[in-house]
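Case 312 in the screening queue. Each case pairs one protein sequence with one candidate compound; here the compound is magnesium ion. For every case the pipeline is the same: read the inputs, emit a complex structure as tokens, and attach any notable structural observations.

Predict complex for case 312.
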Amino acid sequence: MHLYHHWRGIKEKHNNIVVALGNFDGLHIGHQKLISDLVALAKKVGGTPAVFTFHPHPLTVLKPEKSPPLLLSQEAKQKFFAKLGVEVLLQIPFDLDFSGISPEDFIKTVLHEEVGACGVIIGYNYTFGRYGRGTPALLEELSAVYGFELRVIPPIQIEGQPVSSTLIRGLLASGEVTAAAKYLGYYPFVEGEVVTGEQRGRNILGFPTANLNIDQTLLVPANGVYLAKVHIDGESYFGVANIGVKPTFNTNSRNIEVHLLDFYKELYGIQIKVSFTKRLRKEKKFETPSELVKQIERDVLEARAESLKNKE
Ligand code: RBF
Ligand code: MG
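Case 312 output:
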């Protein structure tokens, strides 16, 4: 996959670009459907499947107070697009200059003259250009002028619910990771390097944990204890994860810790991915560390029982 952070001159580099437009936060099953249609259409016309998207989210520039925490990091999104068969990713840094482009100029200058789009795919509710005034109807009208084929993809529904990033954010904010996974098409996860914690888990409690810092721009599930699948170097292991502030010890910083069920090697400095597959309980303040330890022992038993159910 070719990655660009600009859109000028793309036409000279790739033939017959078919381009999907959108924010694609979370790359949920609705987005995944749109991208698979993109890849199929590009294949049909012998063209190049491309995605035009912004990073960061335009709202972080236009209305920072209203900008939502993201479901996926820029890097996670890049990997995912590549896996879905996207060959050209235009991940454009949104700025005030760009926000002033009229919808008509966006189509003429950006899509037609510079990207050279012969096909355009959007979701049914996609808006673009200054004040977000560009609509699917305008793209339809101008597709005849600039000679591109337009596809508008209707929303995907699950049990009567249109799948949306907003719906998924709400589920994550209340810890409903299993429900969120239905709409995402994958379990919510965090990725990062294992950092040094306070060593309390290892030395005092007898439950060593791998600690991850939380990226403040990303949405992490609500505080609580979760069954987790931990990916290390292409292998995966079951674990129990705690997201929270550890009220038993009156700490204030929020972080993510995972205790692996059957893994004893040193992990400091190693990249891991932790997927949250089921919420087990809320994070609680215990009167004594030994009460917390008893609870974690029960969490581990519950996780073992679940892991046996989930073993494929
Ligand atoms: N800390 C709390 O204060 N309350 C909890 O309910 C809690 N639950 C946990 C559950 C699991 C499975 C794990 C691994 C940790 C939990 N912790 C909890 C965090 C614990 O306090 C922490 O791992 C140690 O203090 C070491 O940093
Ligand atoms: Mg630790």
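Case 312 observations:
- The two ends are 31 Å apart (CA to CA).
- The pocket of magnesium ion (ligand 2) is lined by residues 197, 201, 209, 211, 257 (CB under 6 Å).
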